[in-house]
Amino acid sequence: MKPTLESLRACLDGAVPAVIATCAADGTPNVAYASQVHYVDAEHVALSYQFFSKTRENVLAHPYAQVQVVEPGSFRHYRLRVQYLRTETGGPLFQYMKAQLAGIAAQSGMGKVFVLRGADIYRVLDIEAVDPRLPPAPPPPDALLRLRRTLDHLGACDELAQLADRALAALTPGFGIRHALLMMLDEAGASLYTLASLGYGHSGIGAEVALGKGIIGVAAHERILVRINHRTGDYAYHAALRTAATNEPRIPLPVLAEPHSQIAVPLMHADRLLGVLYAESEHDAFFSHADEDALAIYGRHLAALVAQLAALPDDAEPLPAAATPAPTGAPLAVRYFPDDHSVFIDNDYLIKGVAGSILWTLLNEHAQSGRRDFCNRELRRDRRLPLPDGGDNLETRLILLQRRLAERCPAIALEKTGRGRFRLVLDRPLALHAML
Amino acid sequence: MSIRLSAEQAAFLQGPLSINVGAVGRDGWPCVCRAQGALVARDRRTLTVLLAAERGREVLAALDAGSGIAVVFSHPATHATLQLKAPCATRVAPNSAHHACHARYAAAFGGELGALGYGDELVRGLTALTAAGDLAALRFAPEIVFDQTPGPAAGRVLAAA
């Protein structure tokens, strides 16, 4: 029986380089290494086009080629008879291959010379198993079982903050994942912010990634799952995660300095992108193709749960105010910059954007009226806040704000008092300064 | 008219390299097969590559039918790569020197891959590719040598007849 292209996906990870044989117009053979042979679908592969090479010249003149791929772990060879169809220079497949190539390039110390110019699409016409007598590679762990175990640990969640934490924690017993981030898309759809993290020295809650930057930004921008199974080293795919405009206040992403495997899973609900689940490992080839499939399903499941929890109705009104003694001690200086809604506490950066603007509004409301109890519904209607219509992200922004405060400024706290209701709790008096 | 390989090229080609042989069949389909070992003649004008006959039957049939030959040699640790081409190749009966070369190559290339962290399974698989008595030897006189180390200079002609 002929092997199927699906059954060869492990051979297409670049662990053992593939070669491609082509034929020139005058009949002369040519053999070259292919940096990437990417699985497109059951009948197509894509090869990376980096330079105008003899291979490229040949397939443009005579589109038939043979590609030899090797199964890692067994060294069984397969030969694919392929026909060149077209070259793609943009879009999801191109972006995926560009991100993967960065991983391969860094692994081989060739980051500077490996720049993707196009994704050459080939139809696979025939597959030959060259070494049918060699024993197959041991199968990777059962990804379906891993997914089931992850879902068992996730359990039932009735609020977003709980879901965010459990969604990451469940990955450890499920997939053995020890480092992960849950990132949500911001209101403008221009960047993602960290809502929860797993396994880092500092949480990085609130850290941002611009759409299209690094593996997380590419996954969000193209709405595709991106998996890189090699160390990305100094290449921009990693660096872009860690650097931002240096003159802006920012929270550093807590990611590994040199991940050997990375996966970024877009959280899609219907046609909407809600965020990205990112996981990484210090080990090469940590995520199998089957893990990729299973995590894609997990991403869809998480997105549906996020959407479901966000759609639950809020309690109608804030709780009636309870009398509390005024806080004592030296006042905390709270500075607010309206341009980017950034808030500094005693000169230390706390938060910016929608969450910064919410905090500033709450603190002013409290300073003017003494109110401590608030509800989401009134915030959604508040014209001072830069929330889009509907304020879908309000709950995740409040979780972000609550977590940032708990980490950086425990003297100011937001306590949940019901669904869509919360209380501002102050341990110190505040001195509010708007930096106009 | 063949070229004479430099002493450095000859030493490189006989090292623990990944070797792949390409040809074009009568039907116009290009084909490729992994080779396991190369011997450069003393005058450095011809070389013999060794492959498993069963695994390489498509390439061997193409060469028997008069195809040109292209052989790419790559050092896995450095990616230093050469491609040699000739208008034809001749099958020769494998002799004891060929068998010794093949055994040496399997051990050296296996060690090279092991050092790169490929693992024992892959090294075992490599040595299992050629069954006993299945060795084929292809002799050819290269007419052109290309530098094919990945990068913008890939494809540069290093020597031509």
Can you put this structure into words, describing what you see?
The complex is a heterodimer of chains A (436) and B (161). Helix content of chain A is 29%, strand content 30%. Chain A is of the alpha+beta class and 436 residues long. Chain A folds into 3 domains: 6-129, Electron Transport, Fmn-binding Protein, Chain A (Pnp Oxidase, Chain A, Roll), CATH 2.30.110.10; 143-311, GAF domain (Beta-Lactamase, 2-Layer Sandwich); 332-434, Arc Repressor Mutant, subunit A (Orthogonal Bundle). Chain A has a 7-stranded antiparallel sheet. Chain A has a 6-stranded antiparallel sheet with strand order 10-9-8-13-12-11, with helices on both faces. Chain A is elongated, with a radius of gyration of 26 Å. Chain B has a single domain, classed as Electron Transport, Fmn-binding Protein, Chain A (Pnp Oxidase, Chain A), CATH 2.30.110.10. Chain B is built from 4 helices and 10 strands. In chain B, β9 (144-147) and β10 form a beta hairpin. Chain B starts with 6 loop residues before the first helix and ends with a strand. The A-B interface holds A 16-17, 19-23, 27-33, 35, 50-51, 53-54, 62, 64-66, 68, 72-77, 79, 81, 108, 110, 113-114, 130-131, 134, 137, 284 and B 18, 20-24, 28-34, 55, 67-72, 74, 79, 81, 83, 85, 117-119, 121-122, 124-126, 128-129, 148, 150-152, 154-155.
